[in-house]
Amino acid sequence: MSQRLPDAEFLLTELIKQLTPITHESMAMVGIHTGGVWVAQRIHQALNLKLPLGVLDISFYRDDYSKIGLHPQVKPSALPFEVENSHIILVDDVLYTGRTIRAAVNEIFDYGRPASIHLAVLVDRGQRELPIAAQYVGAVLSLPTNNMLELKQQSDGRLSLGLLDVKLAAE
Amino acid sequence: MNHQLQLNKNGELLHLLTIEGLPASILTLILDTAESFTGVTEREIKKIPLLRGKSIFNLFFEPSTRTRTTFEIAAKRLSADVLNLNIAVSAQSKGEALLDTVNNLSAMHADMFVVRHSQSGAAHMIASHVKPDIHVINAGDGRHAHPTQALLDMFTIRRYKQDFHNLRVAIVGDILHSRVARSQIHALSTLGVPEIRVVAPKTLLPNKVERLGVHVYHDMEKGLRDVDVVIMLRLQNERMQGANLPSNEEYFKYYGLTPEKLAKAKPDAIVMHPGPMNRGIEIDSVVADGGQSVILPQVTFGIAVRMAVMSILAGN
User: Fold this and answer.
1) Where are the alpha helices (H) located in chain B, listed in sequence order?
2) With contacts defined as CB-CB under 8 Å, which chain B residues touch A111?
3) Domain-by-domain residue ranges, chain B?
4) What is the pLDDT of residues B147-181, one digit of tens each?
5) How far apart are CA A73 and CA B244, in angstroms?
6) Do B48 and A61 touch (CB under 8 A)?
7) Which tens digit of pLDDT belongs to each residue from A29-81?
8) What pTM was computed for the model?
């Protein structure tokens, strides 16, 4: 791979810097499985948020279910705070087509009506297919569509970014 | 019966007709998926949009309250449209009438059939007849199989006992007439339970039941000794022809689950029953409503398990 990818740990620090000034007592945070949960866990800890971290697996809300079926390992979603009237920071690792975020927002509304949802992502790689934008972004990257950007978590909890060929990744 | 009918060439589930022949990986996939559905019922909106726009027909040729209701709730939680058909059939020419019914409903663009029938093989027959994009779930056929009941039982056991590999499970009662017992035995052995016991009088055991890999006990106190799970079965009087039993009182004396007999099992043993219970015949009310009973949680878990089966089938 010729393209140099930014250091995920550096992007995480950037994101925490952006979120620090808006942090408040009743701020709720929700990570999207799997990469988004890793990022959210780190931010949640760094900002010392009071409300417990929420996690979403959006498999039941995907718009391609009728084409590709159910993802084999669906993890339980849990929003362990009162969603009604809450202010939520939704966290994912990579923002791409926007379809995951659409699904996540729909799922959140099945728990209640939040006062607001803002989106924080480690990387925005463009190529949106829906009118969705992130308010907090670690970095904007332009990547060829045949590349899949993947977040990895090392055994010590450190995060790193890697590129996969879409065709190889599908096999 | 052709058990391979239920899997496609990639080994994915197309129909759920019987537990027999399904690999452990598929059973575990269903249990894991069900686990993630249990949370849905605790939310403000107890619905997910997965099967929106799908039509599911509950075809019940035999009466059932619990199974039909939990299938209906499961389908509705998945946002599917559900139609319940309680069809009383005449004893003659059932096969022909059954396929006519199925053809008519297929013409209405049904996506899935949930079938309960008194004839063994009814769901198989429908599955082999329908177009490839229609899925069939067996909700109990004759004495043959009741796979979703066995799966919800496995889900219940896993919830309370975590691992299958160190368990001793006793199935007690009318094994002969029970499609539930047959499906349970297949599921338990596929998931790796090392010791499965069946406890029943000789008249309520099928011939050569040992071939299924179970240990046979006629003495209930011996059969329950040190078991982790006690599964009671309903005495199916309506299926009995002639004298399988002397009397209900005598049956209760020897095979009814009382606190005294349950005391032979491990102190943390759980008591299960697929329902509906005959209180005072196969189970004492003190046990049915007691601290070791997980009979009502079984019903609740049945919804999540049926949601899992429907959403896996509809996606394949």
Assistant:
1) 24-37, 66-77, 94-107, 122-129, 147-161, 179-190, 220-223, 248-255, 259-262, 285-288, 295-315
2) 43-45
3) 3-146+299-315, 147-295
4) 999 999 999 999 999 999 999 999 999 999 999 99
5) 47
6) yes
7) 999 999 999 999 999 999 999 999 999 999 889 888 878 888 777 888 889 99
8) 0.86
User: Domain B147-295 belongs to what architecture?
Assistant: 3-Layer(aba) Sandwich (3.40)
Instruction: Return the DSSP state at B238.
Output: G
Choose from A55, A65, A67, A99 for mutation: most chain B CBs within 10 A: A65
How much is the pLDDT for B115?
A: 95
Residue B70 pLDDT greater than 50, yes or no: yes
Copy the structure tokens of residue A131. Answer: 């009118």
Domain at A8-64+74-170: CATH code: 3.40.50.2020
Cis peptide before A34 (omega within 30 of 0): yes
Which CATH code for domain B3-146+299-315?
Answer: 3.40.50.1370
The full set of domain ranges for chain A reads 8-64+74-170
Contact assessment for residue A89 and residue A30, using Cβ atoms and an 8 Å cutoff = yes
